[in-house]
Amino acid sequence: MERKKRFETKDEMLALVQAPLLFLSIHFFAFIVCL
Q1: Phi and psi angles of residue 10, each rounded to the nearest 5 degrees, phi first
Q2: Concatenated DSSP letters for the chain?
Q3: How far is it, in rounded angstroms, from Cα 33 to Cα 21?
Q4: How far is CA 16 from each of CA 9, 28, 31, 34, 35, rounded to the nearest angstrom?
Q5: Distance CA 29, CA 35 (A)
Q6: pLDDT of residue 12
Q7: CB atoms within 10 A of CB 34
Q8: Which residues cross the membrane (predicted)?
Q9: What domain range is 28 assigned to?
Q10: What are the mean pLDDT values of the chain's consecutive 10-residue runs (35 residues total)?
Q11: Number of folded domains in the chain?
Q12: Cα–Cα distance measured from residue 3 to residue 35, given in angstroms and rounded to the nearest whole number
């Protein structure tokens, strides 16, 4: 059961990291297009 919890927390961390990265990549792309 502990292993399952660890994997769940890893997935949650990946989701938390993925959202800001996607947000930044979209703004970065928009910035390049504006230039």
Answers
A1: -60, -45
A2: -HHHHHHHHHHHHHHHHHHHHHHHHHHHHHHHHH-
A3: 18
A4: 10, 19, 23, 28, 30
A5: 10
A6: 83
A7: 6
A8: 12-33
A9: 1-35
A10: 67 86 93 90
A11: 1
A12: 47
d(CA 19, CA 35): 25
Distance separating alpha carbons of residues 4 and 17, to the nearest angstrom: 20
Q: Which two tokens stand for residue 32?
A: 């390049």
Per-residue CA distances from 5 to 24, 26, 31 (Å): 29, 32, 39
Tokens of 35: 């230039």
Residue 4: both structure tokens together: 């399952």
Q: Which residue has the tokens 């959202």?
A: 19
What the block records as the tokens of 30 is 């928009």
Residue 3 pLDDT: 63
